[in-house]
Amino acid sequence: MRILLLVLLLIATLSVVTAKDNLKAVIIFSVFSMLCAFMYYLYQAPDVAIAELAIGAAIIPLIYVIAISRHRKFIVLNLLKDDFIDEGSRGYRVLQDFCTHFGLDIEILTESAGQKRMFLHPRDIDLVITHEENHYLFSGRSSSYLFNKLEDLTRDDDVIRIEQVEEGITRD
Predict the structure, then answer these.
(1) Ranked by mean pLDDT, which of 10-14, 64-68, 89-93, 138-142 comes out on top?
(2) Domain 73-165 has CATH 3.40.190
(3) In whole numbers, what is the pLDDT of the chain averaged over residues?
(4) What does DSSP say about strands 105-110 and 73-78: parallel, antiparallel, or unpaired?
(5) How far is CA 146 from CA 45, 131, 142, in A?
């Protein structure tokens, strides 16, 4: 019985690491935690098993699910005066392809949406778009994995330039 549980723990571990979808990874992590709790119970540590069930199989996955659901939006601050980022335009298609690739919903804020912008922390804005000379500048945090992928997708575009901004510095 214990050998079977150890094999199941190994399978769950590998499944969490190789999961392509974050929600699936969280669910598998919760199953992993339940298996651990059962192992603790078999090794006559019921207090540890209860703690593992409460924390590892319930609270931590709940926190992950909340965090994942809050990061389904890619928030873009549009500081342009032209229609480069309007729906159907070239800039919009680039961002739409990027967001579709990652399963994100794009939300574009403009200067006229100042009311909503007041409630956002600068860290909540994923991308700031401005126009400089003969190119459009996409500015984002250098610590963002998504921003690094956007840089890869626009590398061959001669109209779009990418600028990585250090954490805490904003261009808005």
Answers:
(1) 10-14
(2) yes
(3) 84
(4) parallel
(5) 42, 21, 10
Q: Which pLDDT band holds residue 47 (cuts at 50, 70, 90)? A: very high
> CA-to-CA distance for 147 and 165, rounded, in angstroms?
10
For residues 112 and 44, which has the higher predicted lDDT (pLDDT)?
44
Token readout for 79 is 């500081």
Return all residues near 53 (Cβ < 8 A) that are at least 6 apart: 33, 34, 37
Listed as own residue / partner, the contacts of 104-113 with beta carbons closer than 8 Å and 24 or more positions apart are: 104/72, 104/73, 104/74, 104/146, 105/72, 105/73, 105/74, 106/73, 106/74, 106/76, 107/73, 107/74, 107/75, 107/76, 108/76, 108/78, 109/75, 109/76, 109/77, 109/78, 110/78, 111/78, 111/79
Contact 82, 131 (CB under 8 A): yes
Question: Distance between CA atoms of 91 and 89, rounded to whole angstroms?
Answer: 6
Average pLDDT rounded to a whole number, residues 120-138: 82
